[in-house]
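Journal club prep, notes for RB
We'll compare a predicted complex against what the paper describes. Inputs for the calcium ion case:
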Amino acid sequence: MLAQAITRFIAANKYPHFAPKAFFFDMDGVLFNSMPRHAKAWVETMRQIGIEFSEYDAFLNEGQTGRRIIDIFIRKAFGRPSTVEEQEKYYRLKSDLFDAGGAPEPIPGVAEVLNALKNAGMQIFVVTGSGQASLLGKLEHSFPGIFQKEKMVTAHDVRHGKPDPEPYLMALQKAGVQPWEGVVIENAPLGVQSGHAAKLFTVGVNTGILRPEDLQDAGADIVLKNMHELLDELQRNSIV
Ligand code: CA
């Protein structure tokens, strides 16, 4: 499955070959199982505004800023733009609801993928729209010895977030590798669009409640069910 996807990817981009040296991991829904809680917090926030909103809507919109999500759905429900006060108030509410749940657990199987890549000598980056100050500490706590400060692209580094290609283009530059030497691991349509627009091989790992087509249609080169399937494919193709 991965082998065919790689062949299609090389042909579509007219690359000389594909030889991975760097892996670019998204964070929410890829490293940490934080999406179910984000989704529940969004559903409750929208309920308080009086807007019908499902957990599926939250997964589809993952990667938009909170203020933008509030604006999109207020426009849809009430036919008017949101006010800055509404954006601030409801984003604070959503953040408080999310924080009340404590620290999210790692995605099952992702630690094994990270360790296998590290042992194979791959560079490992985190590329996230999150701007939390404690990010590196949190990563080090859950995945000791894997991530480094200089191998991160966060909200503080980019002008345009996903789905713009900028975050992944910056990661590529920091890694010092060619586009046919980098791999993106994403779980959300906007993140997949970003990796695809950067012309990188983009793996959609469907760790949430989306349909596989949601990631396929966003431009994923391959869609996998979980991290165990990813590790299998990497081993079968002698990448790790
Ligand atoms: Ca994500």
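Talking point for the session: The radius of gyration is 18 Å.
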